[in-house]
Target: NAD(P)-binding protein
Amino acid sequence: MAEKPSVLIIGGLGYIGRFLALHIHQNDLASEVRIVDKVLPQLAWLPAEFEEACAGSKFVQADASREQSLARIFDRADGTQWDYVFNCGGETRYSQEDEVYKLRSLGLSLAVGREAAKRGVKCFVELSTGMVYKPDSSPSKEQDKLKPWSKIAVFKLRAEEELAKIEGLNLVIVRLPHIYGPYASQWVATALCMARVYKALGSEMKWLWTKDLRTNTAHISDVIRALWAISGWYTAGKNKWDDKTMGPTPTFNVVDKGATTQGAMADIIGQSFGIQTGFQGQLISTFAKLNLDSVVDDINDELLGPWADLLTEAGITRPGPLTPFMERELLKDTDLSMDGSRLEEVVGFTYDKPKITKDLVEEVIESYRKMNWWP
Model:
């Protein structure tokens, strides 16, 4: 059997990075793993099962966007180079200033990409987003029209383009939808926290726009299995990849087969919480389109107070990363709609969790309870 690959995970304490590290650790997939993050493990809301995989001698605290950190990040005791580098770093918060994304996302990607090329890393995996595609209800394939619609996506697309120009970089780009699963603290978490407040208030949870709006998803366990499968496929010779028809940089959408919509999410949440869910009429949605800032402010004003009360009542003094705070960029009337068939056809990947279900969402809530984050 060939030597197991050595693995460097940039942004290794982020949501995807920590699950990737755990997957590699539990299945004994690598000869060595290094986790790099600018946040210390003690401050990263790490559940107990991640501690062995992400902390101790495996962990290096460093800001990978800074030139002077690169030697400490990449150098290994025996002088050899890393086989796989996964860039799971970058700014994940919405609605930040351009400069923040330029430095923390674009700058970071280019710094580690150039270093990986210089050192002859066998496979460099850059995580990107499905928000780079021109919004359309029919699923976007990897070569479809690009028109980024969130600030994160604007800078992720620039990173994709600039990395592709780096001489000698063994680059793979992976574009992701909304990711959910245990301990998730973004998109699905916001919806669940909102639902918890509506349940407490005894009122209906009404969604903007329409039930057909696409909000495609992937479960974290499928995402990390896909990342591992793609890096193995790349280093084994990129079977079935054709530069002429597919482009010089292997690019894959990782998205489940459920074609998740707002309507599907509303149904699942309604069942899980035992609340009424529905959609605002055309009139309110049209008003919201024209006055999105004030609509978002109103929603947040309505929910944040009751959420704080729920935490107090539950005796949760150290609240986790969960909040019903709604980001304006996530409330746009834009479809996140992706086609994941290339990954299945070219890499031979199969999804364990092909669609989001009530059981999987309840598993997420259960993980919050375990951490004492959930009122």
